Amino acid sequence: MDRPWDSGYGLVTDLSGSPERHAFRRRQVDRSKQFGALIGAGALAAALAACGGSDSSGASPQSGGGTGDPWILGTTDTVTALDPAGSYDLGSSTLEYNLYQTLVTVPPNSTKIVGDAAKSCTYDNPTTLTCTLNPDEKFSNGDPLTSSDVKYSFERAIKIQDANGAAIYLLGSITDTAKDGTVTLNKGAIETPDDQTVVFHLDHPDTTFQYVLTYPGAAAIVDEDAFPADKKLADDQVIGSGPYKLSQYKAGEQAVLELNSNYTGPDPGKTPQVFVKYYSEPSALKLAAQNGEVDVAWRSLSPTDISALKSDSNVTVATGKGSEIRYWVWKVDGPVGKQLAIRQAAAQLIDREAIAKDAYDGTVDPLYSIVPPGYGGASQAFKTAYGTPDVAKAKQILKDAGISTPVDLTVGWTPTHYGPSTEDEANELQRQLESSGLFKVTLKSTEWEQYQTIYKQGAYDLFILGWFPDYPDGDDYLSPFLVDGGFFQNGYKNPQANKLVAKEQGTDDQAKRQQVFGQLQDIAAKDVPFIPSWVGQNTAVYGKGMSGVESTLDPSFIFRFWLVTKNG
Amino acid sequence: MTRAGSGSLPRYILQRILLVIPMIWVILTLVFFVLRVAPGDPVSAALGGKLNQQALDQRREALGFNRPLLAQYWDYLSSVAHLDFGTTFSDNQPVLHVIRDNGGATLTLTVAAFAIALLVGIPLGLLAGRYRDSASDAGIRLFGILSYAAPVFFVGFLMQYYLAEPLGLPTSGDASPITVFEVPTKTHILLIDAFLSGNGEAIQDVLKHLVLPSVCLGLVICGVFIRLVRVNLLQTMQTDYVEAAEARGLKRGSVTWRHVFRNALVPVVTVIGLQFALLLSGAILTEQTFNWPGIGQKLVQYINNRDYGAVQGIITFFALAVVLISLLVDIVNALIDPRVRY
After folding, report:
1. Of the four listed, A21, A114, A410, A512, which is most buried by Cβ atoms within 10 Å?
2. Backbone torsion region of residue A486, taken as left when φ is above 0, otherwise alpha when ψ lies between -120 and 50, otherwise beta
3. C-alpha angle B295-B297-B302 in degrees, rounded to nearest 5
4. In chain A, what residues touch B97 (CB-CB under 8 Å)?
């Protein structure tokens, strides 16, 4: 916003003497040999440049401590803002996880939270959470990180209440929302009795709050001396206390991260520099990966591209468990969806294995409950309730309810939000339902903006949606879906589900919570307000010399730069 | 008889400049209302898959998207009149900074593409006209039609798949990340900044990245020039002065090279202005295909995000660019041919 015209990219570093730079450059030069003969202009330019003297691109030294070569991550994700007060998207949080600390975080392949800037965060009771900071925490600019910074971070995020920020949506336990949409922090919600202690007072029992604290969009800690209280800081000026610091940011083009020498936490980086290059099209990213222009390609390669890359000997396709899901939502208050037997019959027919295999080339896994595997309390409720696809059973369900067949069903999907394979999934679902002879499906599609308006208005009996978690807890797959018709407002209401959600949010006893999660998933399978379809995998493609990529591919979708290295 | 002064160059230029104002106003108004008639808004584009209707409505209210359309329109026109294009909603960038930061890449691409179009299109057009109905004429005409008709993104994909690796050329971006990092930003035009830095590797890297996108975009315009130059050449060769020159014993080749070619190229100046708009629209597709960090790529991103302010600002910039180039061409035409002033 206030980025000066000339200083925006002033943090230019001259690495010309480093071995990492030479290795990095060597690759470029090797490729340029072929090119050298192509255009004389290049050679002429180089000659002119050679006459021009030495590189004048700044002189700040490289951060020490790293041992590997610099590497490039290519991604199709976009960044909304690097100031945590203004972001609620994966593209932003990928950088934020590496630039900032939160009080608590999620280790790879785990949903159990551990301390990050805090030694610990514990519930004194279901409405009071006390966090104790690690001693000697510092920001990358050398400023000490204290409880005052933590309090300030929450206060400013809520005060700024950026519509693109997560704070006003995820911190409901310490905020109040007025009718005009204004969000305010509850009085006395955050206390800082000393420099090392932060106490959160929640306005209702909410043990999911500790999970929200792992998400940088809602809870990253910023330097109160660097970030303004009432507006966002320019992206290229952000300062955090994470393993890396930002050296350059060009919106939509690239970000450059360097090791934070003031970082004292448990996850120091191994690579002196990480480049993040942004792509607008997955096809361009795929070509860049094949051509060696990026070392790691992560998000959102199409199933076709991933299949093609698996047969390319120059790259490795790595997959980990994912958490992104697709599901089909019934308009429960619509003329067709209001009939439980129709919903159950469709659930009895859907063949998730075929959808995963035929529509997505096996790059996704069948999903038998709205909570994906890997989350505490996840079950396979739909598999338990309906078993394998069975036309006879579906026929019986409809017959018992006195419903004549075939049932006319309008199924909605969108081609512009969930990728090109959504059409294949919709077609496969249509084939499965119609081949039973019990349904006559009319597929309808529209652009995402229109889609999300008209599905709420009842344009479809059944429509596809996707979900990506905000925090690593089963609650994030249940409360937004089952309470009062869910965020998608499909008209489903079940007082028992509402009570169970309140119950699991009100206890810190994980065994009890997971038991309630199981009950909620059973209710979903019985009432079928939606039909889970598949859970995505966390897939990355990397080139030769890379290591550690697999270790960060988990359902949290945190790309931990500190785990990845490049040699040779 | 003409009215006094009606043929003066300053008066002509003034008229053209005054015409620009209503033209820009019409474009601004169209863009403003078309964006708002289209379904969706920045809030639903960013958060529609996460929040319920009430929360979305609250955000719209807080951001003023629910205000009367005419009130928003008036505010918008007032801001533009003060050269304030606002801040993008989806990535928090001042719109003028987006234009400044990305305009250089688009300028580099379009200038390079235009140069390629001229360097390839004019000689081929002249050759085709000179050797009319020969095999080379047929081949060049076919090439001209294909290059004009083939979609930019299709040609781009073919180049990426079949040319990039054998030629050792990159498939995406305007430079490698390390070059972008190293070269200090001075003019916001990476190629010029690379020259200013004196970094030979960086210059070579930038030029390498420029080859495929500029050839791809240049081919589209090249087809137009081939056809135009060929037809002009044929028409010029049928004029009386060519016949007279030949009747006086001048050799056909000498007449063609010394007189016909030069005169056949005059109308190209007029067409350059018209082709600029085509070049910009082609640049949007080329930038998408080659991940070129230009203003066209940003425009697509902002349209997808329903980012009103950003789209309005960028389209206004495009419109201004086309209008100014057209104005420049009009002035050059008026200088070359005084008849157009009347």
Report:
1. A21
2. left
3. 90
4. 3
How far from the centroid of its chain's Cα atoms is residue A408's Cα? Answer: 36
Contacts of A73 (CB under 8 A, 6+ apart): A274, A275, A276, A277, A294, A295, A296, A297, A298, A559, A561
Q: DSSP string spanning A208-253? A: THHHHTT-HHHH----TTTS-SSSPPPGGG----SSEEEEEEETTT
Name the burial class of residue B244, with classes exposed (0-12), middle (13-18) and buried (19+) by CB atoms within 10 angstroms of its CB: exposed
A262-305 tens-digit pLDDT: 999 989 999 999 999 999 989 999 999 999 999 999 998 989 89
| pLDDT at B342 (0 to 100) | 61
What would the mean pLDDT of B171-187 be, rounded to a whole number?
Answer: 96
Q: Which two tokens stand for residue B6?
A: 């009606």
- State the Cα–Cα distance between residues A527 and A385, nearest whole angstrom: 11
B150: which DSSP letter?
S
Rounded to a whole number of angstroms, the distance from the CA of A462 to the nearest CA of chain B is 16
Task: Note the helical H segments in A5-107.
Answer: 19-36, 40-51, 90-99
Dihedrals φ, ψ of A136, to 5°? 65, 25
Mutation target among B63, B181, B208 for the A interface, most CBs of A within 10 A: B181
Q: Which of A82-86, A95-99, A318-322, B336-340 has the lowest mean pLDDT?
A: B336-340
**What values do phi and psi take at A375, rounded to 5?**
-90, 140
**β-strand partners of A327:** A465, A532
User: A66 pLDDT exceeds 70?
Assistant: no
With a cut of 60, say whether residue A37 has pLDDT above it.
no
Q: Cβ–Cβ of B46/A163 closer than 8 Å?
A: yes
Taking alpha carbons only, the member of A533, A560, A537 closest to residue A549 is: A560
- How far is residue B117's CA from residue B218's CA, in Å, rounded to a whole number? 5
Work out the number of other CB atoms within 10 angstroms of the CB of residue B66: 11
pLDDT average, residue stretch B279-300: 92
> Which alpha helices (DSSP H) does A7-143 contain, by range?
19-36, 40-51, 90-99
Can you tell me the distance from the alpha carbon of B312 to that of B73, in angstroms, rounded to the nearest whole number?
A: 12
- CA dist B219 → A532, B175, B212, B216, B277 (Å): 48, 22, 11, 6, 15
- Does B97 sit within 8 Å of A180, measured CB to CB? no
Longest dimension (CA), chain B: 87
Do B205 and A28 count as a contact with CB atoms less than 8 A apart? yes
Kindly list the residues from chain B whose CB atom is less than 8 angstroms away from the CB atom of residue A48. 195, 203
Which residues of chain A from 48 to 77 reach within 8 Å of chain B, CB to CB?
A: 48-50, 52-58, 70, 72
Q: Which residue has the tokens 């997971």?
A: A514
Quick check: A270 and A541 in contact, CB under 8 A? Answer: no
Q: Is A443 buried (19+), middle (13-18) or exposed (0-12) by CB count in 10 A? A: middle
The residue with tokens 């607008």 is: A280
Is B62 close to A163, i.e. CB distance below 8 A? yes
In Å, how far are A33, A265, B219 from B205, measured between CA atoms?
Answer: 11, 38, 22
Residue B103 has pLDDT above 50, yes or no: yes
> In whole angstroms, what is the distance from residue A517 CA to residue A496 CA?
13
Q: Does the structure show a pLDDT above 70 at A512?
A: yes
Do A45 and B203 count as a contact with CB atoms less than 8 A apart?
Answer: yes
Q: Does A79 touch chain B (CB under 8 A)?
A: yes
Q: Which residues pair with A412 in a beta bridge?
A: A444, A463
| Residues paired with A430 in a beta bridge | none
Q: Which residue has the higher pLDDT, A37 or A419?
A: A419
Assess whether pLDDT exceeds 90 at residue B307.
no
Measured CA distances, B144 to A381, B150, B262 (Å): 62, 10, 21
Q: What is the mean pLDDT of chain B?
A: 87
Q: What letter does residue B93 receive in the DSSP assignment?
A: -
